Amino acid sequence: MSVEHVLTTCPYCGTGCNFFLQVVDGRLTSVVPCKTDEISLGRLCIKGYNAHAFVQHPDRLKNPMVREKGQLVKASWDQALDRIVKALKEIRDKHGPDSIVLLASAKCTNEENYVFQKLARAVLGTNNVDHCARLCHASTVTGLLYSFGSGAMTNTIPEFDGADCILVTGSNTLEAHPIIGSRMLRAKEKGAKIIVVDPRDTPLSRISHIHLSQRSGTDVAWINGMLKVIIDEGLADEEFVKARTTAFEDLKKVVESYTPEKVESITGIPKEKLVEAARLYARSKKAMIAYAMGITQHSNGTDLVKSIANLAMATGHIGKESTGVNPLRGQCNVQGACDSGGLPNLYPGYQRVDDEAVRAKFEKAWGVRLSPTPGLTLTRAMNDAMAGKVKAMVVFGENVMVSDPDLNHVEEALKKLEFLAVTDIFLTETAKMADVVLPAACYAEKDGTFTNTDRALRMLRKAVEPPGEARADWIIACDLGRRLGSKGFEFSSPADIMAEMATVTPIFAGITHERVDGKVLRWPVPDKDHSGTRILHVQKFTRGQGQFAPIEHTPPAEVVSEEYPFILTTGRNLFQYHTGTMTRRSPKLEREAPEPYVEIRGEDAKKLGIADGDRVSVSSRRGSITLKARVTDKIIEGTIFIPFHYAEAAANRLTNAALDPASDIPEFKVCAARIERA
Amino acid sequence: MVNDLGRKLAKLAFEERGADMLLVMREEHGNVVPAMVPKGEDLGDVRLDIPYQLITILENIYPWVSKGRIAIITRRCDEKALAELVKRKYVDDKRIVRIGLACSEDQIRRCRCEDPVPSKVDLGEPHAAAKGDELISRLEKMSQQERLEFWAGQFKKCNKCFGCTLNCPVCFCDDDCVLEDRTFVAEPSVPPGLSFHMIRSYHMIDKCIECGECERSCPAEIPLLTMRKLLAKDMKELFKFRPGDEKTVSPLNTTLEGEQLEDGCDEC
Ligand code: SF4
Ligand code: SF4
Ligand code: SF4
Q1: What is the pTM of this model?
Q2: What is the pLDDT of residues B146-204, one digit of tens each?
Q3: Distance of CA A147 to the CA centre of its chain
Q4: Which of A340, A480, A539, B128 registers the highest number of CB atoms within 10 A of its CB?
């Protein structure tokens, strides 16, 4: 008989809580919080406590499958892998390497994502590798790279405890990042002031000191308005601005016209409240900004992120303890998938593929010629598939058939492909469309590392064996690499992969599994003696001087009309996670939030004759879904909200695939919609 | 390598008291980790300064561990939790070997503990009880309205993680918890509303042994232990009953004359 408590990392949000998986004779019995974990402090949210529930679910994929006469049938690993290799070779020879797209995964480890991108770049010969960060924080990466030179959280989760003021916008922190939310509660208990800017009433906004409800899609306006107040009232940190930044004068010129009155007319935020919030943020000694998808998922997402950076730089709230700009990353390893090079324009460690010196370094390390052209983003790849230019996709652990915007379009695009291979732990909506399906090991069944939202490397430790013939994604990807004739995939373990990644990735240079096993390390870790970096941009910004960006408010890509009079916004709830493949198979989570719903304000509902619990149909220019109405006072008039977890009423049948030009992130947060009784 | 504490423990558990395995905490991966160590295996770097709720851990694995005697570190509250478990036949007393740990002064202070010394002290030095709960004195000075506001404000932070029930050593109803029943806790969103906390409070009233694990687990840092202490006080004053004794029967399962109810549910 054996009883084990295996310390590992939560597979849900980017907080990266560690906990123990309790295993008795190979059976997962429960999750036990880790009291000494610096991130979670021995607390978890309901998702963490139920993270064992889906692992040994009977629906897990146990065998490879290939499509024969239209049906997916059981196959051996050799058959399935050979089928993939043959198809990829044919398509590459006929249509060139750029007709193939590989999707890496924010649910896979750093080591796996490193192997995925190496497979695309060094073996298939294309930079067409991307993942779902495109859908959540692509604009953070582009925006903060521009302003600061580094696209990640500038400070750390424990620092929230010590802040005097926390400005939270576009983040439903208590539900989407509960354990970060709990740090904010702690700060509040110690006297910190909480400002929430959100069109929805969230559990955090209800206990905040100031809650500003802006109309969706008007964020540049309130930020510029705050900046104007700060500048006019002499609350800017002149010294910091002068010593550390450039282009402040340009910013000044742009924000000049954003009077509180004008901002009120654009955003609906009462001018007194805007002024109060601006003063509070600027005057606090230690003020942190936290934001998430409410900022990033807009067709001007990159501009919004730059605006947030403007606010922090103007007040000097950056580069010090308990300050900074803190994007809260959604998935367990979305930070790491970006860090490890799962992006079409960047090698591991945010090194540009079109930088010759960098490319030469990778060519030498991998012993092959590499493509100098940045690849296709996930959202562009779908368009190109639709246009017949992309012929094959190899997908690792992504469920694009629920997660992507404008699903009807995605479905058509996938159908047009000549070849689709999907590796996943369940037969997802996407896997059902594949020519080859490979069964993967989940987080509890493999070793490796995740990078959480505060840049800390978190260990995954194998607790149980994968079901049936399922294998870890890194083993599958290495096998594919070898079968495609490459020599660079002879890795014996994830630690071995990390060792190679460290040699080509300066921010990871000092990282080894051995070091990460006993200690929290946050990148950049430039060498083996370095103990990691808590706070970024302390002496100078990664790019040198901080760069202000003058930005004007522009209306969202789609505005309401007579036919579509509501603004539809999408997001998460506490109990479900993303496309629901894991949470919906966890009985306690499913019980808390079993069915899709749309939130609508009482006044609006009344006008339309909709009562709480009614079946309603919600339509946009792209599609229509039917679901239950939840009448609530938590949302402002004219706006409706749908959580995006439910395939049976997928919010993304409605959302707009309008893209932010700089980052290709789609506008999930605003589209025009109509709601009526079904 | 085993440390001195580990050596002492191994001798106590395996040699002197005939256990087949020991549930303990030790240092691994830069953290303190609960571990079930079979007899004969190296105990490693044993640590007793982090208050893991070992009784809850024992309960989770007990149904799967069908054979052998299990030694477990028992603080005073753990002894009481075990009594509640044994009384309800959730664990077989004959399979449990207790190793008494007297809590440190610091731990006693953090738990505001009034009963900190186990019946048999094998490890640690016994220390005096704490002098009450500072928050209770503050609450007692408040008006009823202020007190209501205080608790309503606290519960507003609740994030429905169920940590307070999952980690509680005497919360047994696993698969049919009333808190998951829509009749009682209807609110589909967070925070879950007062009924959630009230139901839990009363459901635990004749079982809670004031270990404080709910409070330590609460991400909202609601002073749940203080609430438990206030309820325990009522229970003592009204029914002269304190949970944590194998021989007593909950007054909630008895008639006013003290006889046990006919078909008393042994869970509530
Ligand atoms: S806060 Fe995030 S990482 Fe922590 S337990 Fe919850 S889902 Fe997991
Ligand atoms: S103090 Fe809390 S965790 Fe401990 S027994 Fe009482 S209710 Fe349960
Ligand atoms: S532990 Fe705290 S936050 Fe979690 S359910 Fe209990 S009271 Fe609510």
Answers
A1: 0.92
A2: 999 999 999 999 988 989 999 999 887 766 666 666 556 655 667 887 888 888 888 88
A3: 20
A4: A340
Which of A30, A32, A518 is opposite residue B30, by nearest beta carbon? A518
Our CA angle for A302, A308, A310, nearest 5°, is 105
Closest CB to A3: pick one of B65, B217, B221.
Answer: B65
Ligand 3 contacts CB of residue B219 (under 6 A): yes
Q: Chain A contacts of B60, Cβ < 8 Å?
A: 22, 29-30, 32
Q: Which CATH superfamily is domain A3-49 in?
A: ADC-like domains (2.20.25.90)
A566-677: CATH topology is Barwin-like endoglucanases (2.40.40)
Residue B68, both tokens:
């052998």
- Mean pLDDT, range A237-263, rounded to an integer: 95
**What is the arrangement of strands in the sheet containing A165-169, beginning at the earlier edge strand?**
A210-212, A193-197, A165-169, A287-291, A325-327
Q: Is CATH 3.40.50.720 what the domain over A138-328 is classified as, yes or no? A: no
Tokens of A177: 């990042």
CA of A28 to the centre of ligand 3 (A): 24
Task: Identify the three-state secondary structure at position A459.
Answer: strand
Report chain A's mean pLDDT, rounded to a whole number: 91
Q: Are the CB atoms for A332 and A9 separated by under 8 Å?
A: yes
* Euclidean distance between CA atoms A4 and B35, whole angstroms: 7
Ligand 1 atom nearest the C-alpha of A179 is 1
Which chain B positions have a beta carbon within 8 Å of A18's beta carbon? 31
Ligand approaching nearest to the C-alpha of A8: 1
Residue A238, pLDDT score: 94
* Chain A residues lying within 8 Å of B38, measured CB to CB: 1
CA distance A410 to chain B (A): 32
Q: Which residue has the tokens 């994604």?
A: A473
Q: Which atom of ligand 3 is nearest to the CA of B200?
A: 6
Distance between Cα B161 and ligand 3 center (Å): 5
Atom of ligand 3 nearest to the CA of B192: 8
Q: Which CATH class is domain A65-124+332-505?
A: alpha beta
H helices, E strands: number in chain B: 10, 4
Q: With contact defined as beta carbons under 8 Å apart, do B212 and B164 qualify?
A: no
Domain layout of chain A by residue ranges? 3-49, 65-124+332-505, 138-328, 566-677
- Please report which ligand is nearest the Cα atom of A177: 1
First vs last C-alpha separation in chain A: 56
Contacts of B176 in chain A (CB under 8 A): none
| Sign (positive or negative) of CA dihedral B195, B198, B200, B202 | negative
3 state DSSP class of A195: strand
According to DSSP, the β-strands at A325-327 and A287-291 are parallel
Smallest Cα distance from A332 to chain B, Å: 18
Which residue has its alpha carbon closest to ligand 3 atom 8? B158
Cross-chain Cβ contact A203/B190 below 8 Å: yes
Percent composition of chain A: helix, strand, coil (DSSP 3-state, to 5): 35, 20, 45
The rounded Å distance from CA A204 to ligand 1 centre is 17
Q: Which amino acid residue places its CA nearest to atom 5 of ligand 1?
A: A48
d(C-alpha B148, C-alpha B151), whole Å: 5
Structure tokens at A670: 């605003």
CB atoms within 10 A of CB B182: 9
Strands (E), B56-160: 70-74, 96-100
Chain segment A274-303, per-residue pLDDT in tens: 999 999 999 999 999 999 887 877 778 889
- Nearest CA to A499 out of A491, A374, A8 is that of A491
Cβ–Cβ under 8 Å, residues A30 and B70: no
Residue type, position A245, single letter:
T
Q: Above 90 in pLDDT, residue A568?
A: no
How is residue A13 annotated by DSSP?
A: B
State the pLDDT confidence band at A650, using cuts at 50, 70 and 90. confident
